[in-house]
Write a structure and sequence with these properties.
globular; 375 residues; seven-stranded parallel β-sheet; 15 helices; alpha/beta; 2 domains; single chain; Rossmann fold; five-stranded parallel β-sheet
């Protein structure tokens, strides 16, 4: 296996094509791209311009990869998971390790366990003896059987750099490894995501997008109860095509139908990105009720498309959005979304067009290049 001075460790994910395009623009022909995949066929990564090394996650492949790092100076990890732990531990200490923060791996390493809410318990576990036992066991595991939590902290402690565009994410990472250096990077850019090709629709407050998946971290139940209590009469689109359990998805559909009838539109089938963005563009309100950094692409597109963006009041994205001077809302000032916001929404669009450009990421790639040269 021939590896270059810079090696990227990836999974088959939809926005890694953007990274490869930017990497080859700023530091062409200097990088190897290793993609861990259970099959030989890639689903999300469509790149045809540079060679890709596709490997299955096996101890033999991990060993071969480590043995091939003799000419490598920098490894860039696009997140990590528990199957990579032994591989990361075996990497020679002299290599610089850059971790692109995705979210789940950082939150998995938090020192304090977080417990599922009772509403999620109701939706995710059957209301019988077996369901109650499974719920209590999930709480027990968070306290006592936490091997992945400890291993995630160990991995973060061997990283040299944390790359993210969200200030709160880097602050979180530094609570685990105070020696982490910060690099700014954002997968999302207006050029590669073709954001400007969409015509901005007239603001329609009677259409709302809730969440980005069927994962309980979307806090659908809390949002649906709030909208029902506040007598929201419009259409609610709710993406549920991936994440979560079948039981949870079914519960959200039943609850949405109970509260809003045919105005609740669950999106249960996967759809191409352009079709999904057309639906987002129809909505005047986009509510991402996560308590952690999620749905960043949805939110950036929504600001750009002059939507009313509603966030959970504890979202770690708020500090960054406030620093950018973006106008956003939460459940406590939701009624203000009915005021005249044209000037604020136009300002949001201009800010995003200035902030999420390919050129904003050049500093990141120049830093990687310097590390590869031993500077």
């Amino acid at each position: 296996m021939q590896l270059k001075k810079i090696v990227n460790i990836m999974r088959d994910d939809k926005f890694l094509d953007y990274y490869i395009a930017m990497s080859e623009r700023f530091i062409p022909n200097e990088t190897s791209y290793v993609i861990f995949k259970d099959t030989d066929e890639l689903v999300h990564i469509k790149n045809k311009t540079v060679p890709l090394i596709i490997l299955k996650e096996s101890s033999d492949n991990f060993d071969e990869l480590v043995a091939s790092l003799s000419k490598t100076n920098v490894i860039v990890f696009h997140s990590f998971n528990e199957r990579w732990f032994n591989f990361i531990r075996s990497i020679p200490k002299g290599l610089k390790k850059v971790w692109l923060f995705w979210g789940f791996e950082g939150y998995a390493a938090l020192p304090k366990p977080t417990f599922p809410s009772m509403s999620v318990k109701i939706a995710k576990y059957e209301n019988n003896f077996s369901g109650n036992v499974r719920f209590l066991y999930s709480c027990f595991r968070r306290i006592f059987i936490n091997k992945n939590h400890l291993e995630a902290r160990e991995i973060i402690n061997v990283m040299d750099y944390c790359a993210t565009w969200v200030d709160a994410d880097h602050a979180l990472a530094k609570t685990i490894n105070p020696y982490l250096k910060n690099l700014s990077f954002n997968y999302y850019t207006k050029e590669l995501m073709d954001f400007e090709s969409f015509d901005v629709q007239r603001l329609n407050r009677n259409k709302l997008l809730l969440g980005n998946s069927a994962d309980p971290s979307n806090n659908h139940i809390d949002a649906l109860q709030f909208l029902h209590k506040n007598k929201f009469k419009g259409i609610i689109y709710c993406p549920l095509s991936y994440g979560g359990t079948k039981l949870y998805r079914e519960y959200i559909c039943k609850l949405g139908n109970k509260y809003f009838g045919s105005n609740f539109k669950p999106l249960v089938e996967f759809m191409p990105l352009n079709e999904y963005q057309l639906i987002v563009n129809e909505c005047g309100i986009v509510w991402m009720n996560h308590k952690r950094q999620q749905a960043a692409g949805n939110l950036l597109f929504s600001f750009l498309a002059k939507k009313i963006v509603v966030l959970n009041s504890v979202s770690p994205l708020i500090d960054t959005f406030d620093k950018w001077n973006l106008k956003h809302f939460n459940r406590n000032n939701f009624e203000m979304a009915n005021s005249n916001l044209e000037a604020d929404l136009e300002k949001n669009r201009k800010i995003i067009l200035e902030r999420i450009t390919i050129d904003q990421n050049e500093t990141f790639f120049r830093s990687i290049e310097k590390l590869a040269l031993g500077k």
